Each structure stands twice: as C-alpha cells, then as structure tokens.
Amino acid sequence: DDLYRTLSYTQNDEKTDKKMYVSTINCPKHDPYGAMLATKRQFGKMGGNVAYHGYQSFKPGEVTPEEAHKIGMETAKQMWGEDYQVVVTTHLNTDSLHNHFVINSVSFTDGKKFRNSIGDRLELRKISDEICAERSKSVIESHKFYSNKKAYWAQKAGHVTHREMLRRDVEEALSQCINHIEFVAFLKALG
C-alpha cells in the first residue's frame, strides 16, 4: 500500500501535466508498481522498506519543465540506474519545479536491498550538484544531512538536540580546562 500510494502521489496528473513528466528506469512506464512488486516477489523481499522517495528542487524560474525532468533522469540513472527500478516525476504545481524519485528498495539485478545510508545521500547530492553545475544551475553550498530523523525534526521545531547539547558542553569544557582530568571532571559536573 505504501508503494502504491507513493507512486500515485508522485505521478499525479495535476502535478505532472497529465503524466507528461513521468519517466521510468528499468521498469515499464505503464506499470512500475507491478514491475517493482514482481522484483520483490522474485527475490522474496516483500517486507521492510518497500521503496525510497527522494526529491530534487530548483530555484523558481531557473529551469523549464523539460530541463528539470532531464536533470532528474540523468541524476537517477547515475545514482540507481544500473541496479534499481526508479520512477522519476517532475512536479509543476509549485513555484519551484521539483523532481521526485521513487526507488524500489530491491535490486532487480541481484535482489540486494538499497539501504539509503548517509553515504548514499551524500553521493546523490554530489551527482545532482555536478549535473546542475554543468548546466549552470544553482546548487546549495552547504547543507546538513541527518541520519537521525528525530534530530532533524527536533531542530526544525527549534529544539536543541542531544548532539547539539553534547557539542556545546564539550566546546565549553575545552575552553575552560587545561588538562584531561579537568576536562572529564567538568563534563561530569555538567551531567
């Protein structure tokens, strides 16, 4: 159900100009859902994460729908095209044109599951940035990636995360202490 809902959302007629900006990699455009399920069944991997959903956004007015979709397809092919089934859609319903990627979590070549680690997200960013830079499109200069969704949402809500508290305490201890014993005692005093 999650896979079906995600594919339905990303392929929405109103957002993709009646599916004009919907493409697939390693699966048929007319039934990516069926193809992805068949791959999962073939390798006996129906459970766990069924797919990954990512996106790629552009500055308002920076790209045409055709450019955005080409960039999305090239990004997806470089990132997942050798081993995974991918649906790439370009949404036109906001000021910022953006691509959605839906990636089957199971490889159609060997049945291995894609894990979507921090390294994968950094690689995706690198590929996307290189493709955009080649076309003189803007890239975000710096951005934090979070492996922990709780930390991401805590920061987004204005809360201090455990990691940020720890970093602040260590920096304070480093500025106040002259040796290791003082450093450990200072941190213990902070709790």
Would you write up a description of this structure?
This protein has a four-stranded antiparallel β-sheet, sandwiched between helices. With 191 residues, it is an alpha+beta fold. Strand 3 and strand 4 (98-104) form a beta hairpin. It has helices at 2-10, 32-42, 65-80, 118-134, 149-156, 162-176, 180-190, and strands at 22-25, 51-57, 86-91, 98-104.
Give a quick rundown of the structure.
With 191 residues, this protein is of the alpha+beta class. The chain has seven helices and four strands; from the N terminus they run H-E-H-E-H-E-E-H-H-H-H.
Question: What ranges have pLDDT less than 50 throughout 5 or more consecutive residues?
Answer: none
Mean residue pLDDT: 91
Number of helices: 7
As an assembly, this protein is single chain
Beta-strand fraction estimate:
5-15%
The helicity comes to 40-55%
Rg, please? 21 Å
Derived structural class: alpha+beta
The biggest beta sheet reads:
4 strands, antiparallel
Instruction: Count the E strands.
Output: 4
Distance between termini? 45 Å
Principal-axes shape call: globular
Helix/strand order: HEHEHEEHHHH
Biggest sheet strand order reads 1-3-4-2
